[in-house]
Give the backbone structure.
Amino acid sequence: MTSPIETEATDASVALDKKNATQNDTGGAPSHTGRSPGQLMWTRFKRDKVGMVAAGIVLFFYAIAALAPLISKVYGKDPYTLYPDEPGYENILDDFSMPMGTFGGVSGDFWFGVEPNLGRDVFTMLLYGMRTSLYMALVITILCVATGVVIGMVGGYFGGKVDYWLGRTTDFFLAFPSQLFFIAFMPVVTALFVSPTEETPTYLRAVAIILVMWFLGWMGMARLVRSSVLSLREREFVEAAKVSGASRWRIVRKEILPNIVTPILVQGTYTLPSSILTIAFLSYVGVGFVEPTPDWGRMFATGAEVYEQNPGFMFFPGVAMVIFVLAFNLLGDSVRDAFDPKTGR
């Protein structure tokens, strides 16, 4: 029968053997592998199946938008050609200029059907419309996030009169009724550069939309960042950095900014789909993109005119927008949960 002392000695010997084996595997040092916050965030994010699927959908949309010219070339159609005027396609519209065939003219030649009245290919119209909206929304989101972060951090960290005047400026811009301002101000912006008797170039319309949406899109981010900085600037680690002689720029960059990345990213993931919807709204009401530029909003405007005769025309752009906006919102929730597991679902 083994005594307690012999048992303890055996257990200690086994533990020592395990320790030595671990040290040998790691080059003689105990194995203590640390992970950065970014690695921990990525590990948590990979476990979220909904977030991974949403990220895949978002990347897929941006990929096909970027490859729209190549896809169009392989497909053999483009969004500008009036196909009833092309040989072999004279009968794709009926006597009322509605698509022949089922569900808006869906066929092997036209995967998503054809446009009523003009007979353009819906599939390539959607590809190029997504290309326009997605990349414009990305630029707008970057500008709004950068502006909001700078203004919010300056006001929140310096406080006093700086915070007061930046706060009043933010309140002033928040007072604008954004939708009405978009409708009223877009023609003014374009008229500053182009004569009313001339057609406004597409690039100028795009720049005008970006400027107007940037002008009225940074305030929410600024307020969010300001409130986060106010709660951090009196914390112990910030005070310790001040005592050590760190400059204000270093404190803001090294101590405060890394601790507010989560709300910034989450707010950014909500800003982008909102920007896409606003771009579509501007084209829908006639102050955004016009013919012949493919655009999601104009497709909805055309579909609203013919939905009784041809409901299929609005189906594909509508489903695509719903899927993308939903995926991006789910991605935002997953990013938030990955950075802050306490808020996990």
Notes: Residues 122-158 form the longest helix (37 residues). The mean pLDDT is 80. DSSP finds 14 helices and no strands in the chain.
